[in-house]
Amino acid sequence: xSDAQMTTRAKDKSRWERFRESDFFYAFKxxxxxxxxxxxxxxxxxxxxxxxxxxPTNPFDPASLNLMNGFTAPMEPNAFTQETFxxxxxxxxxxxxxxxxxxxxxxLFVGVSAVLFAxxxxxxxxxxxxxxxxxxxxxxxxxxxxQLTFPSILVAMLxxxxxxxxxxxxxxxxxxxxxxxxAIGLSDWVQFARVVxxxxxxxxxxxYVAAARLIGRSPWAIMIKHILPNALSPVLVIATxxxxxxxxxEATLSFLGVGAPPTQPSLGTLIRIGQGFLFSGEWWIxxxxxxxxxxxxxxxxxLGDWLRDALNPRLR
Amino acid sequence: MTTxxxxxxxxxxxxxxxxxxxxxVDGVSYDISEGEILGVVGESGAGKSMAGNAxxxxxxxxxxxxxxxxxxxxxxxxxxxxxxxxxLRGKEIGMIFQDPLTSLNPLLTVGDQLxxxxxxxxxxxxxxxxxxxxxxxxxxxIPGAAERIDSYPHEFSGGMRQRVVIALALCAEPSLVIAxxxxxxxxxxxxxxxxSLLKRLCRERGTAVMLITHxxxxxxxxxxxxxxxxAGRLAELGNVRDxxxxxxxxxxxxxxxxxxxxxxxxxxxxxxxxxxxRLQHMPNGCxxxxxxxxxxxxxxxxxxxxxxxxxxxxxxxxxxEAVE
Amino acid sequence: MLAFIIRRVxxxxxxxxxxxxxxxxMFRFVGDPIDNxxxxxxxxEDVERLRxxxxxxxxxxxxxxxxxxxxxxxxxGVSYRQGRPxxxxxxxxxxxxxxxxxxxxxxxxIAGIALGVFxxxxxxxxxxxxxxxxxxVGVSLPTFLxxxxxxxxxxxxxxxxxxFGRGETVSIGDWWTTGFLTQSGIKALILPAITLGLYQxxxxxxxVRSEMLEVLRQDYIRFARARGLRxxxxxxxxxxxxxxxxxxxxxxxxxGSIIAFAIITExxxxxxxxxxxxxxxxxxxxxxxxxxxxxxxxxxxxGINLIVDILYVFIDPRLRVxxxxxx
Lengths: 316, 324, 327
Description:
The complex is a heterotrimer.
Chain A: H1 3-9, H2 15-21, H3 23-30, H4 32-49, H5 51-54, H6 96-132, H7 134-149, H8 152-166, H9 172-186, H10 189-204, H11 207-214, H12 219-256, H13 267-275, H14 284-311
Chain B: E1 6-17, E2 20-32, E3 37-41, H1 48-56, E4 64-72, E5 75-76, H2 82-88, E6 93-96, H3 100-103, H4 110-121, H5 126-139, H6 145-148, H7 158-170, E7 176-180, H8 188-205, E8 208-213, H9 216-222, E9 225-230, E10 233-239, H10 240-245, H11 250-257, E11 311-312
Chain C: H1 2-29, H2 33-37, H3 44-54, H4 60-72, H5 86-121, H6 126-140, H7 143-157, E1 170-172, E2 176-178, H8 183-216, H9 219-226, H10 231-269, H11 274-283, H12 287-315, H13 317-320
Antiparallel strand pairs in C: 1-2
Helix pairs in contact in C: 1-12, 5-6, 5-8, 5-10, 6-8, 7-8, 7-10, 8-10, 9-10, 10-11, 10-12, 11-12
Keywords (chain B): ATP-binding, Cell membrane, Membrane, Nucleotide-binding, Transport
GO molecular function (chain B): ATP binding; ATP hydrolysis activity
InterPro entries (chain B): AAA+_ATPase, ABC_Ni/Peptide_Import, ABC_transporter-like_ATP-bd, ABC_transporter-like_CS, Oligopep_ABC_C, P-loop_NTPase
């Protein structure tokens, strides 16, 4: 359906009604994978956002900890205190369920911020490269090519290491989360820049852009008002898939000990801690964070896959 | 009477779709004798290629033969499965596709592709196959065949590639060749050469040819007999001169009138009003009746009259004089 | 063709120069090398002497050139943390990583192509559907979780295979140590190799499958069938060969990633390779080791890419006989 038809027909309809009648929404309703993964993502995101309300304890409040509760198995009363915990406790008596909720908060915060950062950076650089061309384009795209030769997890590690080197020792733990966002964001902008540049090149040659230029609109106004909207759906797809990758990247870095510090543990940090208890039989300290990470990464990934097929089957 | 090389009896092909079963080929019958070229004409979607694919056993699933019989040299081949059918392909039935640019494997030399085909079907040695490959290229008129044998497809022009494709289709000396729009993708200047090459080779070897095309010019040039198809059914079947000069079916007449070659002298080209019905929405009775200038009452519900050689599947066939 | 190779070599050198610049900038500007090398007790003279010795008083381009000169000769300076030449440490660790990467790479390529072809040819079969569904989970599964899962199954529960280290190794020549020659070495290699190879295998499999399905739709495959060629010939000689043209590039890139992803696997299994060294270097901000690792891995990546490009020319005749004109 053409845009013109859409607007005339939609005049007396709200945005929501239009959305409900769209092919996109129809395809969404028809796909069980999309529905399930969307639900899982919603549940996980909401429980992360409202972690302080849901979590039985605040694992970072020393007052709420009781060392006697250490190593309580899930759903079994503790031998000393008789307290039971849904997912057991770790060595320090912290409730695993609560640490997961708080950990997921950090994982999601880092993931979403890193993707937003990469997206903004990629869009700006992509617009510049596509619209202005010339040496700016050469430098940006060459650099992108070189960066693309290296796996992004390696780039993120390097940036993390360098940024850590710049941070004074006493601030390192405090700054770790922000350094992590910077590192993952910088490792992931290339895809966005490429897509936006491609869309810009296509739109730039069209008559309406020439017309806007003739009447003296500023380049940035043209780019943001006219060109960018055309690149939005691929950008959305890449953002979703990038989010899954960013969550995994964050978990990986934290697991390796070059990410979120033990004072602000993300899911990756929790798994790193839990791995130490694998041989001694306290499986739950590892098992539940790992399952949560898996559910989060898998459902975001599936949603991204579905979105890609629904919005643009040719984008691979 | 000798048995024809190919004999199709009441052939139907069905494709199950979400909107129900469609029949791209519906009760088609015709024969092709040794050394004869049968032209199969019709608009795209008329089922002419689908019938060709059914004969060679290359229908893409979920399309399948749902009725009728296919006889090749007196043997019924439509029930043959997998391996038995594969042995017939290339050996007994050769096929030529529309686009020579995409029909050849870009990563193998033309010599390799010829040799592998012959080695699959003929009891010959590798060395013999290599020699015969050169001969096959020579036969289709490729200059310097001995040197070109190790060339890759991309090193040939479009017309030359179609010659290679013909050499490949004929190299195991099949008794039937199905040529599916063999000239459509080629330059006009090359088309006539390819047609006359195909004609010459088949005459020399006595190969029967099913020449599928939408181009009346090609039919006039090459075919001995013509089968006109419309919406999956046979509209008219007969000798090429009769059909071209004295069409009996109103559709054939319209088709002829809309072809520049056959309508020389006419000021304006004729147009058949409307379009061929979609397979999901086939009208009752004769599929052509909504567009037919000579439509009668019975056309919209009665089943078509039985077809035969030199006849049209029509309740009100044109008389010979009407064409004048 | 020669021109093509020369151009590619030129591009590769340019990439290496850029990476070298990044590595050098890290070396020079992240923290103060003097601070890092001298302890708290130092004199102004010490600082000055070291500054001249390290050439830090010279202009930037000269320093960069000297750094490159050193790097080409394998001189990457001294590790802040261990106080030994970085090159020596890397040489010690390299065999472990290379052996692990080689085995996983081989595993990923062989199994990936085999499964990709299988799922493409039998695309409607039950087995193919199962493999595809499993691979979707595999792509979303972080490498370190696979490693932990394998450790849990085969080391903790079953006790069949060791969960860390390289087992017994045998020295070959001056500096190469191999784990291939002892039983414990091979046993120790199994879990890390699977962990490292699994993700790459999944990617290769999915790529081979989608490319092969694309190729199987092509006219020349239909024509090959119409000529009565056997299924085996159509699938392998015709379809697989055409599939490999785009796949080879990606496999090349994947091999590069294997060396990078070895960092994760080496950490999970405490495998004494360069990846583990790199992670430790990041934790302790040991800049010379980081810079050297970066340079080393870039040389590998660029080298692999170059080989892939040249390989490409041998697979695809359309590139080989690039006559005059065109591009």
